[in-house]
Amino acid sequence: MTPILRIQGVSKHFGGFTALDGVSVDVAQGERFGLIGPNGSGKTTLISCVAGAQRNEQGTIVFDGEDVTRQPAYQRTRRGIARSFQIPRPFRSMSVRENLIVPLEFVVHRRSLHRADVHGEAQRILDDMGLGAKADTPCDQLSQVELRKMELARAMAARPRLLISDEAMAGLSGSEVDEVLKILFDLNAKGITIIMIEHIMHAVMRFSQRVVCLDAGKIICEGTPDAIVKDPQVQKAYLGA
Amino acid sequence: MRFWISLLVILGLAGIAAGVMKNEYYFFAGYVVLQFVVLATAWNLLGGYAGYVNFGTAAFFGLGAYIAVLLIKAFQAPLLVQILAAAAVGAALGLGVGVLTLRLRGIFFSIATVAVTIIVETVIINWRYVGGATGVQILRPQSTWPFESYIEMLFFVALVLAMVAVIIARYIQTSWIGRGLRAIRDNEEAAECSGVPTLKLKLAACVISGALMSAAGAPLAMYQSFVEPVSAFSLNYSVSALAMPIIGGTSHWIGPVLGAVLLGTVQQVVTVTISSELNVLVVGVLLVVFVVAAPEGIVGLARRIFRK
Amino acid sequence: MVFSLDLLAEAVLFGILVGCFYAAVSIGLSVAFGLLDVPHIAHPAFMVLGAYGTYLLGRYGVDPILSGLLLAPLFFLLGVAMYRFYYETFEKRGTDAGVRGLAFFFGIAFIIEIGLVLAFGVDQRMVEAAYIGKSMSLGEIRIPLRLVVAFGTALLLTFFLSLYLSKTFTGRAIKAVAQDEPALRLMGANPVRIKQWAFGIATAVAAIAGAMLIIVGPVEPAMDRVYIGRTFCVVVLAGLGSMSGTLVAGLILGIAESIVLTMFGASWAPAVAFGLLLLVLGVRPQGLFGR
């Protein structure tokens, strides 16, 4: 079966600094894929290139058989790639529900707006996430974990086939991490491929079927969570030489 | 529904006032206020809804006036043609500036608008056919029925333009377009990742805004009977078009209208009673005061009062 | 359109002299906008304010360059206060800060301009000094002494500021805060204090630039507008955050303007800076040496 995402030879430079150096990796359909690496290794840059927020100078990104390397981010979202941001980026002037209406109007119901019940649909998605009661609350009144959930809900409103979760659990408490993890497991059970970037090791290891470790813009190890944890190169990258 | 009825009522009232009013001064003053309603509303499409600040309203406005001059001199074109042509050119200029700078950060768009003002003004100053630096006289035709004077007709033209601007602003605000623009303003990267075609929407807002601003400038030629670059491209237009929505409130279409009516009236009063430099200073000071102390403008203040 | 090699050489020479002046004028903006990311549209207005301050002191017989140096500490305090106010009102609160910050500085620039009109009128003002009005000869070309003085001052100013930014602790902190604010905080330095200081320096430099402005030629209140074009053109062409690039960019602008002035006349010269700016934004927005 063709991989849903094929990253080949992707390189990205910022001035003199090489953020990504010839990264190649495939993600299978429906997979739970973990991406780890020390700070500055290029994880966020890589997924920014996949989502379209950044443009890689070399290499290709093929999503579901289609070369999306030159496509702007909004087109990739319409093709089925969604991402949440490391630091939540809510639409601050809007309520929680309205935040979700944006992708509903611009992705899902683009051509049939007059027939769609975007308010109802947004409410249903929020209910599934446990945010139903907060639908009309303005964003600046949400707690951290609620904001993270809203990020995920908004990404999900676009009905993606690939969801990239960028450190959605950073700074959350133990039970909150479990909440978010359960949401991601449920989404994956519905058939959505999920790429997870996390520093919380136990979460990544519990969640992922396959893990890739980046360091200084290169992939240094790829395999099952058990294999990754035991790999000496990974240990060196995290603990230093 | 209430909205449309209100528009008809205003139109009706204006018609009655026109029949009753004998002092032409009110048409002159009213024209100026309505002109600012168009400019402020147009500015707010890009500035308030999308968050991109245009410092060059004067460029679009003056360009509109000079397109009108060009058409009058070359073809004796009627006012409607002047306005439509000005709108087309304004749209093109908005597209040009937008394509060049809307991909970059907001401040570069703003500086580009300053650039455009000076460049357009410089081009006009060096163009002798439209009068160059000395300006050009325009012969105002006799009035056409049912208006008693040409100024009365211009007043109604301005009223119609103002209504068109408000209708467009209201539609954009309440539609998916407005939501997309607000998403861009709140967080452009997140908007793009939520499927909003940010560049296309920004360009659309810029084009519509530019078209309206230039359309507002076209009747100036007939209104003043004399057009010269320094006053046509006056900084006052740029500052007012920015100050009025900020003072009135940028989140709702009624904000620019309120700001234009209030500030425009204040300007008329101050100019007549004190001096025109002081009038312009008042605008600048009010702008800074509101930006600092009441960023949501009168609309925001009203919302807060009525929430209690 | 009269064109000859001599005329071209003269234009280039004038361009170099004026270009260095533009670079010095833009260095303040390079710090305020290039490093601190403050949308300081009002920077040229402060320079014009400094020029008028020099004019006022000139009426009491104070030499222009001395006036600039005297005004600098005053402007430094003004800059510190301005940044503090900007930070408290806008930067802290996030959200709408972009639009409001821009509108704020636009309003300030406007108020300064109109204030100057009310105080001094729209006519041009000049200063007198020993070196204004005289020329020196370089071979066949006569160079006005005032341009040489401005050139020299500008060069010194650029040199000392670059030295300050690279050699002193505060100077390097300023560069650091532009690149990595959290890291700086972790090192124990207070980013807001450093940015305040930097903004103060940028405004003090504006005062000296203002003195040079009125040495180079007569000033009028609306001059800040064309200098918005020139300074932003230099800063963007250099590349945000590049100090050394400012000199190169200034020279390019100076020479371009001078050539246009010689070939097409004075009424086209103001458009050169803006035209060049639009060109850079369209073709290579990160500038020549940008980050």
Quick overview:
The complex is a heterotrimer of chains A (241), B (308) and C (291). Chain A is α/β, with parallel strands linked by helices.
Architecture overview:
The complex is a heterotrimer of chains A (241), B (308) and C (291). By secondary structure, chain A is α/β, with parallel strands linked by helices. Chain A has nine helices and ten strands. Chain A has helices at residues 43-51, 73-79, 96-108, 118-129, 144-157, 174-189, 201-207, 225-230, 232-239, and strands at 5-14, 17-27, 32-36, 58-63, 66-67, 81-84, 162-166, 193-197, 210-215, 218-223. In chain A, the strands form two sheets. Chain A has a six-stranded mixed beta sheet with strand order 6-7-8-3-9-10, sandwiched between helices. In chain A, strands 2-1-4-5 form a four-stranded antiparallel beta sheet, with helices on one face. The longest helix of chain B is centred in the middle third of the chain and has 25 residues, at 150-174. Chain B has 308 residues and is mostly helical. Chain B has a two-stranded antiparallel ribbon. Chain B has 15 helices and two strands. Chain C has a domain at 27-223. Chain C has helices at 5-35, 43-59, 64-91, 97-120, 145-167, 169-179, 181-186, 191-216, 223-238, 243-264, 269-283; strands at 135-138, 141-144. The radius of gyration of chain C is 19 Å and the shape is globular. Chains in contact: A-B, B-C. The interface between A and B is medium-sized, with 30 and 20 residues.
Number of continuous helical runs of chain A: 9
Helix count of chain B?
15
Major sheet details of chain B: 2 strands, antiparallel
- If you compute it from the alpha carbons, what radius of gyration of chain B comes out, rounded to the nearest whole angstrom? 19 Å
Question: Helix fraction of chain A?
Answer: 25-40%
Order of helices and strands of chain B: HHHHHEHHHHHEHHHHH
Helix content range of chain B: over 70%
- Uncertain ranges of chain B: none
Please tell me what the overall shape of chain B is.
globular
Largest sheet of chain A: 6 strands, mixed
Pick out its properties.
heterotrimer, A: 241 residues, alpha/beta, six-stranded mixed sheet, four-stranded antiparallel sheet, 9 helices, 25% strand, C: 291 residues, mainly alpha, two-stranded antiparallel ribbon, 11 helices, 2 strands
Q: Layout of helices and strands, plus pairs?
A:
The complex is a heterotrimer of chains A (241), B (308) and C (291).
Chain A (H helix, E strand, L loop, with lengths): L4 E10 L2 E11 L4 E5 L6 H9 L6 E6 L2 E2 L5 H7 L1 E4 L11 H13 L9 H12 L14 H14 L4 E5 L7 H16 L3 E5 L3 H7 L2 E6 L2 E6 L1 H6 L1 H8 L2
Parallel strand pairs in A: 3-8, 3-9, 6-7, 7-8
Antiparallel strand pairs in A: 1-2, 1-4, 4-5, 9-10
Helix pairs in contact in A: 3-4, 3-5, 4-5
Chain B lengths: L1 H19 L4 H23 L9 H19 L3 H23 L4 H20 L10 E2 L12 H25 L1 H11 L1 H6 L4 H20 L2 H5 L1 E2 L1 H4 L2 H14 L5 H20 L2 H18 L3 H11 L1
Antiparallel strand pairs in B: 1-2
Chain C lengths: L4 H31 L7 H17 L4 H28 L5 H24 L14 E4 L2 E4 H23 L1 H11 L1 H6 L4 H26 L6 H16 L4 H22 L4 H15 L8
Helix pairs in contact in C: 1-5, 1-8, 1-9, 1-10, 2-3, 2-4, 2-8, 2-9, 3-8, 5-6, 5-8, 6-8, 9-10, 9-11, 10-11
